[in-house]
Specification:
The complex is a heterodimer. By secondary structure, chain A is of the alpha/beta class. Chain A has two domains: 221 residues, 3-Layer(aba) Sandwich (Rossmann fold), CATH 3.40.50; 31 residues, no CATH class. Chain A contains ten helices and ten strands. In chain A, the strands form two sheets. Chain A has a six-stranded mixed beta sheet with strand order 6-7-8-3-9-10, with helices on both faces. A four-stranded antiparallel beta sheet of chain A has the order 2-1-4-5, covered by helices on one side. In chain A, 42% of the residues are buried. By secondary structure, chain B is mostly helical. The two termini of chain B are 18 Å apart. The mean pLDDT of chain B is 89. The chains are: A alpha/beta, B mainly alpha. Chains A and B meet through helix 2, strand 6 and helix 3 of A and helix 2 and helix 5 of B.
Chain lengths: 264, 256
C-alpha cells in the first residue's frame, strides 16, 4: 500500500533540549493515524516538521511522496494544517474566512466552495457573523472546514478536540471519520487515549523523543496481558448523563462509532 | 515554484483585503489614525494657534506636514499590532503551510500600511482644506510630497514589523510607537525651533522629522526646498533599509 507519510530517524533539538531522538513511523494513504503522547512529548514538533514549518536536525521525512526538506512547495500543495489553536480570523465572518482560503488556494469558484462547506458543517446560519462571536466548537469546525478547501490529500489535526465540550468533540470525530471515508489521510495528535481508540486505524505512542509502540488497536492490546473477566458495576459517566439530558440532536457515541466497531 | 511566483500579487491582494477589513471594522483604529490627528489639528489651529508665532499668517499651512507625520506614526502602531496578533493566533502558520509565497503574509501587512495611511492622509488633507489650508504647489511638487510620505510610511512600517514580529505581548507590540508619535512635537512641526533652549533646539533641528517637515512645507508652499529634501530622503531611506534588514531577520527566525 502507498504511504502518505514516511519518517525515518527524525531528530530535533531546541537549544540543549533534545525533543525528538530518532522518530520512525509510516502512515498509509487514506488511513487515520493517531500520534499519542503527553504534553510536551513533541507531537506538535512532528506536525510542524511535516507541514514544512520547522527545520529538523537529521533524518528524513517524506510526505505524499515529496521530501519535506527538498520539495516543501509540493508538500504544501498536498497538505492542510489545522493547528492546536483554531487558526481562524476572528474579525472576519465565517464565510469570509473560507473565501479567503479558497482564494489563496487559487480556486475559481471560491464563493461556491465556501457555501458548500458552510452547509456541510452546519454553519450556514452563522456564516455572516464574525468569528469572534462563535463558540469553541463552531470555531474548530470552521478551522477544519478551512483545511478542507482545495481537497488536500493529507490533513494534519493537532489536538483537534482540545478544549471542546463533549458534543462538539463528537461532531469533530464524526467529521474526521467522514474525511477518511472520502479517501483523505488524517494525521492527528491527541492526549486522550479514548480519542485515539475511537478514531484511529493505527496508533503510535511518542514517549521521551521516540515512538515506543505503534500498531492497530488490536495489535496494541495484544502487547498487554489478556483481558480478565471482572464484575464491575457500570455507573453512567457524567459525560453520558450530560449527553443523555441534552441529547436530542447529539448522536451518542455508540451511534457514531457502532459502524467502525463492527468492521473490526 | 513558478506557480507561486505567478500568484504572488493575487495572494498579496487577498492579504490586503483581509487587513483592510480589519481596519474598517475597528472603530479604535479609525479614531486613532484619522480622528485624533484631525482633533490635534483643530486644537492647534483654533486654540493654541493664535498665540504661536510662526512668521506665516496661515497656521494650517504651517501645521499640516507635522500632523500628517503624526497620523502615519500612529497608523503604523496598528501594523505592529496586527502582525503580532497574526503571529499569536496561528493564522500565520496556516498561511505558511499553504502553497503560497511565504512572504505574501508579511508583504500584505506592509501594503495594508501604505494603503491605510494613504487614506488617512487624504482624509486629513481634505479636512485641512476645509480649515483653510491652501497650496500653490504644482503636480510635480505634490508627487514629490507623496513620494516622501510613502518613504516615511515604509520606513516606519518596517520598524513596526520588527516590533510586531519580536514583541512578547500586545502592549509591547504597540509601545514602540509612542516615541515616534512624540518626535514631531520636538521638531519644527508645530513651532519654529528658534524659541527652544539650545539643547532641545539642537536635537529638534537634527532629528529626521524636522527635515521631512521642512521639505514638505516648502514643497506645498511652492518655495525652494534646498538641502532639507536630501537630508529627509537620506533619513527615510537609511531607516527603511536598516529596519527592513532587521525585520526580515526577525521574520526568518520566526518562520524558519
Amino acid at each position: 500500500m502507498e504511504k502518505a507519510i514516511q519518517v525515518k530517524g527524525l531528530q530535533k533539538s531546541f537549544k540543549d533540549i533534545e525533543v525528538l531522538k530518532g522518530v520512525d513511523f509510516e502512515v498509509e494513504k487514506g488511513s487515520i493515524f493517531a500520534l499519542l503522547g503527553a504534553n510536551g512529548a513533541g507531537k506538535t514538533t512532528i506536525i510542524k516538521i511535516l507541514a514544512t514549518l520547522l527545520k529538523f536536525d537529521s533524518g528524513t521525512a517524506v510526505v505524499n511522496g515529496f521530501n519535506v526538506t527538498l520539495k516543501p512547495g509540493n508538500v504544501r500543495q498536498s497538505i492542510s494544517l489545522t493547528g492546536q489553536f483554531a487558526a481562524v480570523d476572528e474579525i472576519l465572518t465565517g464565510r469570509e474566512n473560507l473565501i479567503m482560503i479558497a482564494k489563496l488556494r487559487h480556486l475559481k469558484n471560491s464563493r461556491q466552495v465556501a457555501d458548500d462547506l458552510l452547509n456541510r458543517f452546519g454553519l450556514t446560519d452563522a456564516a455572516d457573523r464574525r468569528v469572534s462571536t462563535y463558540s469553541g466548537g463552531m470555531r474548530r469546525k470552521l478551522d477544519i472546514a478551512m483545511s478542507l478547501i482545495g481537497k488536500p490529500k493529507l490533513i494534519f489535526l493537532d489536538e483537534p478536540t482540545n478544549g471542546l465540550d463533549p458534543e462538539a468533540r463528537i461532531e469533530v470525530w464524526k467529521t474526521v471519520k467522514e474525511l477518511a471515508g472520502g479517501g483523505t489521510t488524517v494525521f492527528l495528535t491527541t492526549q486522550h487515549l479514548e480519542e485515539a481508540e475511537q478514531l484511529a486505524d493505527r496508533i503510535a505512542i511518542l514517549h521521551e523523543g521516540r515512538i515506543i509502540v505503534s500498531g492497530t488497536l488490536t495489535e496494541l492490546k495484544k502487547l498487554f496481558p489478556p483481558a480478565k473477566v471482572e464484575y464491575v458495576e457500570k455507573q453512567p459517566s457524567l459525560e453520558e448523563i450530560f449527553l443523555a439530558i441534552i441529547g436530542t440532536g447529539a448522536p451518542t457515541r455508540q451511534a457514531v462509532w457502532g459502524e467502525k466497531k463492527e468492521e473490526k | 515554484m513558478e506557480a507561486i511566483k505567478k500568484h504572488f500579487l493575487n495572494d498579496m491582494g487577498v492579504m490586503l483585503g483581509r487587513s483592510m477589513r480589519h481596519i474598517f471594522r475597528s472603530m479604535d483604529t479609525i479614531i486613532t489614525v484619522a480622528i485624533t490627528p484631525i482633533a490635534l489639528m483643530l486644537l492647534f489651529v483654533y486654540v493654541f494657534g493664535g498665540a504661536i508665532q510662526t512668521g506665516t499668517d496661515n497656521y494650517v499651512n504651517y501645521l499640516l506636514p507635522g500632523i500628517l507625520l503624526i497620523a502615519i506614526a500612529s497608523g503604523i502602531a496598528y501594523t505592529a499590532y496586527r502582525l503580532f496578533m497574526d503571529m499569536q493566533s496561528g493564522i500565520f502558520e496556516r498561511f505558511h503551510s499553504m502553497p503560497i509565497a511565504r512572504s505574501a503574509a508579511l508583504w500584505g501587512h506592509v501594503l495594508t500600511s501604505l494603503v491605510s495611511n494613504a487614506i488617512s492622509v487624504a482624509v486629513i488633507i481634505l479636512v485641512a482644506l476645509i480649515m483653510g489650508f491652501r497650496s500653490s504647489a504644482g503636480v510635480l511638487s505634490w508627487l514629490v510630497v507623496a513620494g516622501i510620505l510613502v518613504l516615511f510610511t515604509l520606513a516606519l512600517t518596517w520598524i513596526a514589523a520588527i516590533a510586531g514580529l519580536s514583541a512578547k505581548s500586545v502592549d509591547g507590540a504597540g509601545a514602540f510607537s509612542y516615541p515616534l508619535i512624540f518626535l514631531p512635537f520636538i521638531s519644527s512641526a508645530f513651532v519654529p525651533t528658534e524659541t527652544m533652549p539650545s539643547v532641545v533646539r539642537a536635537f529638534a533641528e537634527n532629528q529626521p522629522v524636522t527635515s521631512i517637515v521642512e521639505s514638505i512645507r516648502a514643497l506645498l508652499a511652492g518655495q525652494p526646498v534646498g538641502n532639507d529634501i536630501w537630508i529627509a530622503l537620506a533619513w527615510c531611506l537609511g531607516i527603511l533599509i536598516v529596519a527592513y534588514l532587521f525585520a526580515m531577520r526577525a521574520y526568518k527566525r520566526k518562520a524558519a
